[in-house]
Amino acid sequence: MECSQASLKRIRFHSLAFYRGIGMKNKSFLAVQTRWESTRVDLDDILLIERRLRKVFLVTSERLISYYDKIKHIEPLLGENYMKLLDGCFINLERMESAKEGILRFDTGFELPVSSRNFAKAKRSHHSYYRTRQLRESGEAQEESN
User: Is the pTM of this model over 0.70?
Assistant: First the structure.
């Protein structure tokens, strides 16, 4: 049986959900529904979130997911490991390996060239994120040894 045009238009819209499951050690994810699929995307797996016109693009370790949404619905769901690079673009600092020569490199080999202003901003944020994390982890290790 083939779908009519009207029913295709109805299923085109998506839904966005955020969940912290009990026993999942605060695994956060987005539930994304597109025209062709309904899927769960872990926030830890996302490298980059970008808005182009009315579409949101999620760059993950394995694929690119695009669907219609407003970035303002996703922004409150992001944790401290996400940085707003520019209007409508967020990067996952946890997955970013290095910032060198105007290119942000991620642990999967994905490279994102950025302007010099945004490169400096991302480089500072990347360093301060890992420095804060390093201090927090060393403080927790000292508390455990006491």
Answer: yes
